[in-house]
Amino acid sequence: xxxxxxxxxxxxxxxxxxxxxxxxxxxxxxxxxxxxxxxxxxxxxxxxxxxxxxxxxxxxxxxxxxxxxxxxxxxxxxxxxxxxxxxxxxxxxxxxxxxxxxxxxxxxxxxxxxxxxxxxxxxxxxxxxxxxxxxxxxxxxxxxxxxxxxxxxxxxxxxxxxxxxxxxxxxxxxxxxxxxxxxxxxxxxxxxxxxxxxxxxxxxxxxxxxxxxxxxxxxxxxxxxxxxxxxxxxxxxxxxxxxxxxxxxxxxxxxxxxxxxxxxxxxxxxxxxxxxxxxxxxxxxxxxxxxxxxxxxxxxxxxxxxxxxxxxxxxxxxxxxxxxxxxxxxxxxxxxxxxxxxxxxxxxxxxxxxxxxxxxxxxxxxxxxxxxxxxxxxxxxx
Length: 382
Hints:
Strand 3 (30-31) and strand 4 (34-35) form a beta hairpin. Helices cover 52% and strands 9% of the residues. The chain is mainly alpha-helical. The protein is built from 16 helices and 8 strands. It has helices at residues 43-66, 69-82, 88-98, 108-121, 126-143, 153-163, 167-186, 213-226, 231-239, 244-248, 282-290, 301-311, 319-332, 335-342, 347-354, 360-366, and strands at residues 8-16, 19-27, 30-31, 34-35, 38-40, 256-257, 262-265, 276-279.
């Protein structure tokens, strides 16, 4: 059966395992330089497809009639210039993505100022804002005057490659850039986030570094002798696993319940923004009672560095917290309880990172470290 109306519908038959089957072909001829047709098992399906193609062609034809002679000439010239590199549709899409953003053209430095302001309004942690500022300032120093929608994937890739970062540091900067340009997309200063097109680095899992038990004791003994005001800070870091800056740095003595033997980490300082309670072990109780004061926990960067140097211990990122987690898990052999103490929400991550770092015999020594002085009367610290 042949239909004179475009597109043609042809009836065909074929034998499969000795049985004769009828099917229909919708044949629109050559489209975009290619012969294309589709097969259907029923005439009704074929006619439906043919009707759809006619509607599409009629619409294109009606739109084409509306074009002025000048627009037609531009289309022809555009097709010639593009050649096989891209279609007019692709060229238009590229232009729309890289020029005339809906939110208006804006420089990188102005968007950066808006970005930091938005973080303050969103009540993000000071450390979070500081990290974003530090990592992005380098980029802004180079591309600050550029418009957001003009920064390309090549620009970002070349810039970060020239810095020669390690894979971890590189990924940390790219993470901030992805978030920054995503903010620009939301503000409609550009349509496509170029940083998202840069492949993420494959990073090996890092095993946490813990401090040997003998070094922990030597550090605390040194603090007792050289900087007694710093003792509570070190004791809370190692025997409660509190985060040094955000948690210990913002904690007051009122957050410690000596009768119930609990430390209250309030939502305003907790990383997860949820309240949690940390148990006070026997040895931590002894340390805190011996060096009890009031007001805010004392901290001095100079004394902190001096004690570490005098004790001759190696320090690393979150080493005290890692030491607490591994020693607590080794002692109690309870992953859920360890999660509660540390404020972790993923037991699998904690189990993977901390299990086996500290032996049970070492943990027993760790939890027996006591102050040599029974009670120290410190000046009130406000």
